[in-house]
Write a structure and sequence with these properties.
It is built from one helix and eight strands. The protein is mainly beta and 100 residues long.
Length: 100
């Protein structure tokens, strides 16, 4: 099963960096909230959660870069078939832009 996941990621996955190392994964918005932002004193802030599926092992606090934006791993776990880890799942949050 793992070789099949690797082929799917190579063909259809997106190029991302995990802690500076390039890999392939799927990154997409998680469907958790009806309103994907919160309003702060500085204006609207995107607080959507993002989902990561890939072969690269993740841990809490790791940094994922995708399409020029940085994301932080908020939760993650390995997904198994039998005793074999076939991919990693993670919930990501977008890093806030630095105040200018």
């Amino acid at each position: 099963m793992k070789p099949s996941i690797a082929r799917i990621l190579r063909k259809y996955g997106q190029t991302v960096k995990v802690n500076g190392t390039e890999t392939r994964a799927f990154i997409q918005p998680a469907r958790e909230k009806a309103v994907p932002f919160e309003v702060s004193s500085l204006g609207a802030v995107d607080d959507r959660k993002w989902m990561y599926l890939g072969e690269t092992k993740l841990k809490l606090g790791d940094r994922v870069e995708f399409r020029g934006r940085g994301y932080t791993v908020r939760s993650c776990e390995s997904v198994h078939i039998g005793d074999e880890i076939v991919f990693w799942w993670a919930s990501l949050t977008a890093e806030r832009e630095a105040a200018e």
